[in-house]
Design brief:
Blueprint lengths: L1 H8 L6 E6 L13 E2 L3 H8 L24 E8 L11 E6 L7 H10 L7 E5 L4 E5 L2 H4 L7 H8 L19 H22 L10 E7 L1 H9 L4 H24 L4 E8 L36 H27 L3 H4 L1 H12 L1
Parallel strand pairs: 2-4, 3-7, 3-8, 5-7
Antiparallel strand pairs: 1-4, 1-8, 5-6
Helix pairs in contact: 5-6, 6-7, 6-8, 7-8
Length: 347
């Protein structure tokens, strides 16, 4: 009990953002600076070396090296708990305004900048059976169980986490318990697939992973947050996430950022459209109920400069040609008039 209490003292009370792993050139500063939930995607984009529309005025992340960026970013969102005992971390920050967020904007940036290199983009929420895969993820994670039925059948196969986890008070036949164990199985299978495809860490395109786990939230609803089942599941998930972060960090050769967001409950329900970010954009912008402008295109500056200078060059060319034509002497500057003038003289 004393050891558990000592571990709980090391984490930030309330909803939190914990940086489990990060390379040395991604500079996270230790402190109690709160970060808003809606700024998490911008923070992830900056750690990967991408630009954002608005400056992130948050002292927890400093500007890193210009020509060095991590090869992967793994974000795990844990719902139903405000903090986890993760003592081996880089830094931990309070999370304020825990509104729902997605990494769709970061995924679109990765896909647009590294489309030819086919980077791995994986966004998964097992409880909602929500899956987004792009690039090499379609080939690497094609065997990853997605639906709850597939994951539960995976629990009865060889290599299941049930053989190695201390279930204690958890019941493998209960619905809420199975959901939690299924999410743990997904974490285990992701690291196993990454170990099988180690070549992913050798390419030049960054990989993006986003996982959302809600098994603890269901256990809290089913048994209560003071129950033994909830406490056992919290301890299991903390140990699993600690090892999961170390495995991912090691597979990418120390060039990966692993973050864990723990949130008791989101302030508003998250509404998402079932679509692929590869689909063509419509002419109108129906996805914005506030009549907002379209997202910034990184090719805008290039196209703008090409059109601008081409118009300036053409305008200058027209002015120079018009000036020379206006001041031209037909008898000397034009070969047509010159030949005509000689013919008249001969006659």
């Amino acid at each position: 009990v004393n050891e558990s209490f000592a571990l709980m003292k090391t984490v930030t009370l309330g909803d939190s953002l914990t940086i489990l792993q990060a390379p040395g050139y991604v500079s996270f500063q230790k402190g109690d600076w709160p970060i808003s939930g809606e700024k998490i995607p911008d923070m992830v984009a900056l750690t990967m070396g991408f630009s954002v529309q608005e400056d992130l005025s948050w002292p927890g992340l400093r500007a890193g090296q210009l020509f060095q960026r991590p090869r992967a970013n793994m974000l795990v969102v844990v719902r139903g708990v405000d903090s986890l005992a993760l003592p081996q971390n880089v830094a931990s920050y309070p999370l304020e305004n825990p509104v729902p967020f997605t990494l769709d904007s970061v995924a679109e940036t990765v896909h647009s900048l590294f489309a030819e290199d086919t980077p791995v983009v994986l966004q998964l929420a097992p409880s909602e059976e929500r899956l987004y895969m792009l690039g090499k993820a379609n080939a690497v994670f094609e065997d990853l169980p997605v639906t709850l039925q597939q994951i539960r059948s995976r629990l009865s196969q060889d290599g299941s986490v049930l053989a190695s986890l201390p279930l204690n008070s958890l019941n493998r036949n209960a619905e809420a318990d199975l959901l939690f164990l299924s999410e743990v199985q997904v974490l285990h299978d992701i690291t196993a697939l990454l170990q099988r495809h180690r070549h992913l860490a050798q390419d030049h395109s960054p990989d993006l992973y986003s996982l959302e786990l809600s098994g603890l939230e269901e256990l809290g609803r089913r048994y209560g947050q003071d129950s033994q089942q909830y406490r056992d599941a919290t301890a299991i998930l903390a140990n699993v996430l600690q090892k999961f972060g170390e495995d991912v960090f090691g597979l990418y050769g120390g060039s990966a950022v692993v973050e864990v967001v723990t949130v008791k409950s989101f302030e508003a329900p998250l509404t998402r459209k079932s679509r692929s970010i590869l689909e063509s954009k419509q002419i109108s912008n129906p996805g914005s109920p506030y009549n907002l402008a379209y997202k910034y295109n990184f090719n805008y500056a290039v196209i703008f400069n090409i059109v601008l200078w081409l118009m300036i060059i053409l305008a200058l060319a027209v002015i120079v040609i018009s000036y020379n034509l206006w001041n031209m002497d037909p008898g000397y500057d034009s070969i047509i008039y010159r030949m005509t003038n000689q013919k008249i003289r001969l006659d």
